[in-house]
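Table 4 source record.
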Amino acid sequence: MSKGEGLDLDIEDYEVDDLLSGKPDWIDSKMAEKLADLPLDCIEKEFPHFVYSVSDHDYFTTPKEQHPIFYGCFDWHSAVHSHWSLIRQLRLLDDHPLKNEIIEKLDKQFTEEKAEKEKLYFDENRDFEKPYGWAWFMRLMVELELWDDEQANRWKRNLKPLENKLLELIQSRFLEQEHPLRVGTHGNSAFALQAFWDHAVIMENQKLKAKVEKKSREFFMNDTSAPIDYEPVGWDFLSPSLVEADLMHRVLDQEEFLDWLNGFLPELPSDHPILEPFKVELDELMKFHLVGLNLSKAWCLSSISRALPEEHRYKDIFLESAGNHAVQGLKQTFSRDYRGSHWLTSFALYLFTLEEDGIDPC
């Protein structure tokens, strides 16, 4: 049993204001163990695993053979953001109760040899995990960049060739696309652009930042009257409309963003369904996506609200909605059911640390 598995954690023991503060000062040892326990349990869990199409009987190699670092957590992108989550916890939470265990596992993962093999896979599979996995990997590298730590610097050096490879693919295989994907799942273009923007700002990569802004404007600047009545579709874990707005407040100054938002969400009553969290019955495989949807909507609504002036008509209702989404989503986040446990705590940590360096830098 992992250290956090036996801990009884009731999210209602925590204040909503703390959950939405974007600062981790309130996170106690019980919550810290819960946030680390599930990623630690799955980053080396090779099976069950999602496998892409297999061309013939000689094709198949195991996930660990293909991806010696990011083979656990059911799929590559979940493994990446689980590693991101563990690094971010170590960087932001002083005296983490599982610090030694996390460092031991990450040090075993982030070797130069393993990173080189990960990079080589993308030489032959240029669209693998585009853009969602790429987005989370850029966030992982941001954490290592921000962490003033000798061990983190070594991990960063080892992963640098993979980062360079994915930056090359972002430019050639993503930013050259002519049309965005406005979906609530992995292909969402706005979600990826957020991560690429944050990476460019932290890394002071002015060329990438300019290209991300240009593409964001090309994709979304003329969007009006967002089709919020149709959300969610199927098993969304992102709100296409809210993720798009969360991107545009990054790349536009406040005045331009407010003009854009007035056209994008011209009429949004406080009782609109998009502002209501989902009460999810976890009886189907993909229903955990809707738990993630509650969490991602919480962070989008909170982030957008912070970007609005005090007198704006949406500021208070967005913040109230964010709190409702956070409480509802977090009630089901820490399940031991592997369908959710392999990824949901990363979404919770993103929400809890929204105002810390590395996410939406100004």
